[in-house]
């Protein structure tokens, strides 16, 4: 059932088997708090009711409070499946938030990794129990192409950020068909996964003060699908006034073409996998409601088996610009148009990408004879799947991209061709969208934008070479390794040296968490005079439309201009977008 290396579902699935192994190496810090602790957990009384949590210890040994698996909306089950979320305003009895809740359904063995349809949960972590001191709040929206990962503490854990004076909230939202089904009509107008996130942001406004957080100082941060979500909250009228700064790591909804108004084709495909009728949206949804969440969640891989090329495309789901069918719309305009016309919630914004993003996707093609031969033989038909190309003029665009990236040559397992193909994967999915976001925002937002590329290769990565077991580049998601503990995937980065991991990785945690902290607190990633010595060498200029400066984050910080602009020119030629 489990398809290894299906982007990031990979991370969740493939590494399940390694879990015990990594516990052995872990030693302490991260595994300990998860163990049963007989000390009674702390209780926070929120406007919604009392919540009982547990204690955890940060990377540097600070004790903090953890409240996990709190429902922020009604369970989206039964009649509520495929419906927008219903806010949870009060709890009838004390909420037991002392243990981890489920992630949303995805193709994992739920006895190994706990997922359930009743997944509209969030985790709150706070170092504070003095309600007169209010800390900045960071809300993290997890990555995973809208179909994988979760906000659980074993994937995006608090142990690094909670060494800073912040309240951290990590949220789940519904995934894949259960979260993003859209039929273009009133049956399922779409974007429910984003509406879930809005519901969570509203819960935070109502309740975070009780945890010591300042509801007037909320930073929304996300990576990949979470990054795109952050940008959409800036556009959506529904999310207005629910946040005050943004961190958008490696993606945006500003791509090659306007967003669609529905993905009825995906709904029909999902229906057909489960022997449901496909001839009307009502019939599709009524039938899918009779299926178990396992049947829907576990059938995800069929999309790739039937309609993909290997593990491409990286994602099937996209946000939709909802038709007006009387519902509360999350998105009613094209994101780039909203930014150009100033119709958005302007907040201080960090935009970034990693140095190599999806470079590793090349290996799965060129080192598999079947895929390699097919890509070469049918380039014009495969390129649109692999590089997410619009339908219009796809053959000519495919040829042009091959000429520019590969010098017109076939794909092949050589360092040079792999690099070229990997760049094409990275630019087509992530690089172009990050570039367009940063460039639009720095021209039209009245608030500052800081742009960066994460170029540090540490000891661990979301892509490790199968032979050497070592990182081979700076992969998509690699920047999250220095912000969040990821006990499901790797041992913690310890505060003290060595081995493993390297003290350098420790320095990177210090820097990344300091940047997030100072940005959440002051709306500026540069520290104030005399604060945060770990950032003493940081002098990160605001991006402006003239010289377009950006920061390169590596062992040293350095400032450069015009990130990847030359290599992205071909995309502007093929799919022009006005800044
Ligand atoms: C909370 O308050 C108690 C007593 O005032 C104190 O001992 C404890 O360290 C505080 N910190 C946390 C994280 O709860
Ligand atoms: C709570 O915070 C306020 C403001 O920072 C401080 O004056 C007060 O002493 C603190 N109380 C406790 C019990 O720590
Ligand atoms: C859909 O197909 C079913 C069975 O094939 C048929 O009974 C029904 O009338 C069709 N509905 C529409 C809207 O075409
Ligand atoms: C090559 O890719 C095909 C198609 O995805 C797959 O079925 C096959 O198992 C792969 N072969 C190897 C050796 O991984
Ligand atoms: C990886 O860890 C080893 C020690 O285990 C260290 O010597 C080496 O410098 C580290 N590499 C990086 C890139 O941090």
Textual characterization of the structure:
This protein is of the alpha/beta class. The chain has a single domain (1-579), classed as Alpha/Beta hydrolase fold, catalytic domain (Rossmann fold), CATH 3.40.50.1820. It is built from 18 helices and 14 strands. The protein has helices spanning 9-14, 19-26, 31-34, 176-180, 192-207, 225-235, 264-273, 281-289, 293-297, 300-307, 335-340, 361-366, 369-377, 379-386, 394-406, 415-444, 503-522, 565-574; strands at residues 43-46, 49-52, 54-57, 63-71, 95-96, 121-126, 135-141, 167-171, 213-223, 245-249, 349-354, 449-454, 549-553, 557-561. Strands 3-4-6-8-7-9-10-11-12-13-14 form an 11-stranded mixed beta sheet, with helices on both faces. Strand 9, helix 6 (225-235) and strand 10 (245-249) form a beta-alpha-beta unit. Helix 13 (369-377) crosses helix 14 and helix 14 crosses helix 15 (394-406). It is globular, with a radius of gyration of 22 Å. The two termini are 44 Å apart. Mean pLDDT is 93; it is low at 1-35. The structure holds 2-acetamido-2-deoxy-beta-D-glucopyranose (NAG) (5 copies). The site of one 2-acetamido-2-deoxy-beta-D-glucopyranose has 4 residues, from helix 13.
